[in-house]
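The aim of this short unit is practical: by the end, you should be able to scan a pair of folded records and say something sensible about each. We start with the first protein, listed as its amino acid sequence and then its structure tokens.
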Amino acid sequence: MFAPRKTFLRAHRIAMTLFRLMIPVILGIRLLEELGAVEWLSALLSPLMELLGLPGASGLVWATTMLINLFGGLVVLAALWPELSLSVAQVSVLASLMLLAHALPVEARIAQRAGVHLGFTLLLRIGMAFVYGLMLHGIYSAGDWLQQPAQLLWQPPPAEAGWLPWLWGQLQNLAMIYLVIQVLILLLELLQRFGIVDGINRSLRPVLHLLGIGREAETLTLVGLTLGLSYGGALLIEEAEAGHVAPRDVLYAMSLLGLSHSLIEDTLLMLLTGADWVALLPLRVLFTLAAIFLLVRMTRDWPPHRLGRLVRPAA
């Protein structure tokens, strides 16, 4: 029987778990920004960007994206746009890097709380972003495709300097996350009540089964793919801590979400850079599925003690 109060309390509990992870990391990243961590990371990335056919200065865009989020990277990209003079092929590579590896301090911490080791998450997302970027660069270069100048379709409003405007913006973001989680849990309860979740899961089951993701993680994976890793991860944390999701399912689901999540919103945001939509969505999803398939093939026969190098064993 549907119980609104129980649903509200569950959503509140999930949101508080997420906030306890996010708030210290958000404050820490702000301090690192003030100390110049973004510029330091940018200098490290500059040689790698050139291997991908990108200007070394574009490392600042990816560094900002990895430490902060996609929107922060877009702001830096807009500021550097006249200097970078990117082609459609180049901006497609850069936007793909941003999609596969962004907001890592927050999102990797969420994956860690769900059970996946921090080092593995960082290696997977940064490493696979570089591999995908290298693949795209090779394709575009071989066919001499998309070499026309890219058109930036969005100009961000100037950001207010100082801690108070930043703090107000973060409070607004947290309030929005809380609201979305409340609506999400209510919607999931209703969809489950009317059997819609089971129908969706049945349609996805062949693909998720191929990837080694069990039934208990199917709905949570779908949430992450559509709405974002924070939401899917928050639900997965709750289920994993309750012992409802096996460690292998946690590993494969969080790895899948790490490489492809918030497929609608994030993809639309990156299209504002003038990038090729084929690279941002269908090719990225296929690349993600191939990467997770290989991960499953490599680890599916590992004994629990060896798998424990990647994901926390069941309690």
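Turning to the second protein, read its sequence before its tokens, just as you did above.
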Amino acid sequence: MTKLDENIQKLSGFLGRFKETGIRNRIAGEDQLGSGGVFQTVSPVDKSVICDVARGTEEDINKAAEAAADAFPAWRDMPATERRRILLNVADAIEVRAEEISLCECWDTGQTMRFMSKAALRGAENFRFFADQVVQARDGQHLKSPTLMNITSRVPIGPVGVITPWNTPFMLSTWKIAPALAAGCTVVHKPAEDSPLTARLLVEIAEEAGLPPGVLNTVNGYGHDAGKRLTEHPLIKAIAFVGESRTGSIITKQGADTLKRMHLELGGKNPVIVFDDADLDRALDAVIFMIYSINGERCTSSSRLLIQDTIREEFEAKLIARVNNIKVGHPLDPATEIGPLVSNEHYEKVCSYFDKATEDGATIAAGGEKIGDEGFFIRPTLFTNANNQMRIAREEIFGPVLTSIPFSTEEEALQIANDTPYGLTGYVWTNDLTRALRFTDKLEAGMIWVNSENVRHLPTPFGGVKASGIGRDGGDYSFEFYMEQKHIGFATGQHKIMRLGA
């Protein structure tokens, strides 16, 4: 039996209960049918129906918000050491069920085992990291003045809504939910309708690990009804959202009437800039990894290659050869590097850029083709002879598609890199330290890596500028979002009060 056959057999066992009972909403520790009936989640591998999913609507969000509000005081007031213990239990349980999580995620999203096996463990790492921050999460400062002893502390903001996307959904859910729970907040989670399986696994794991009922509630459904109500509900104090920039703008408007705090992790059209003094072999590896891994379906992918004209021909030739050698196939095969795109809608969107590229004058140097009709597979694609005004350079494609744009000088590279509505990440390849410092200082992005691919260090801030988002995740930056600052001033003997009406 091959490893692929073994994984398919294991997956069949894991999916059995979903096929039998479907996925229900989880509210206050109980399974509930969706008030909107059901919808179906479909595997992008072969277009087969995985299972029915409860369709939550306004009624279900109302129940979940009330459950989160009811559970909030006890969770907030639970000793920090006890909350830490529960979150560490969640991390341990994720590790135990990592294979189940990974296999289900691959089948539901089309992502490959090569990467999803690590993503499940990243979810455990997120819970473990934030669990270790629980004890000091409420710590503040002592700010003495001549007349007052000033102290600050932080308190959890209350029930929060978490809306997560379909790309690497398990890891991104833990990235938002773990710090919210560590801060003392309760959560209503609305997963993406295209990838609901592992959200269900997460709430099961959390409750089995000791999370009290109502602290984490999961409501499946669509953005225009369940998501809309979540962003508008008066009991929900904040929304943490990962998704498209256009959707981020919409939910900000929806939350305005209740003055919700918003954390928006949005889209990107991220540049990777390769200068002619760079280590070209390492740069080539990083360029390929950051756009073609995870099916190109991630916000931090470097979808614009800015290549210095003195090395352009040599670099693009090597790039074309490597791209044509990337293995596309079944996501449960450990040898597969790219699986199918997540849905028919997204598949058609990505494929539409093949025609847009040629219409605008670019060259399809590799890929640019659909593969078969059984699932949503395409060949990894490279566009060359492009400029930054083409649609392939300005619009977020969100697939295994790279656009190569030449530049001649550092000043031109900076101008091209910043000429975008987005500003999430940037990647710079040069062995000139002075240039690296000068260039990164002026590059408009929330996160920049020099001579590296995207390597996350959990205490560092994660987030973008411009249309790529508002706010930061990671370390103490997450607590700044999920908690309120509180100031208390104690009068000293020197403090005199002005007397009126004596």
